């Protein structure tokens, strides 16, 4: 089964901080781990989140995770240090998708 998983981790805007967003994709047939397919700050982050919502891609807000993911290069797999937290996010998204019937 070739199943791609995507999610966006966004950071709410704070008075002194620009929003940050990152998008991950994972295809168990070709990827060793989830990889960063988009990231940005400010207006780009807002566009990433807007596109996610437009296409009904679940958005998970975690400022620390989005900051860590934004430091990675595009197409770079997440490092082992992030496996646990990303697995928790993927489990959350799986539950959301099942509940909404997406």
TrEMBL record:
Organism, scientific name: Bellilinea caldifistulae
One biological process term in Gene Ontology: protein secretion
Cited Pfam families: Bac_export_2
GO CC, any one term: plasma membrane
Ranges that cross the membrane: none
SUPFAM superfamilies according to UniProt: EscU C-terminal domain-like (SSF160544)
Source domain of life: Bacteria
Name recorded for this polypeptide: FhlB domain-containing protein
């Amino acid at each position: 089964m070739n199943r791609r998983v995507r999610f966006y981790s966004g950071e709410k805007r704070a008075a002194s901080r620009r929003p940050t967003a990152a998008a991950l994709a994972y295809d168990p047939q070709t990827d060793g781990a989830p990889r960063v397919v988009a990231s940005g700050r400010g207006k780009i982050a807002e566009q990433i989140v807007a596109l996610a919502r437009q296409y009904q891609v679940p958005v998970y807000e975690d400022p620390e995770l989005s900051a860590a993911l934004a430091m990675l290069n595009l197409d770079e797999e997440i490092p082992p240090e992030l496996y646990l937290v990303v697995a928790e996010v993927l489990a959350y998204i799986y539950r959301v998708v099942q509940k909404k019937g997406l």
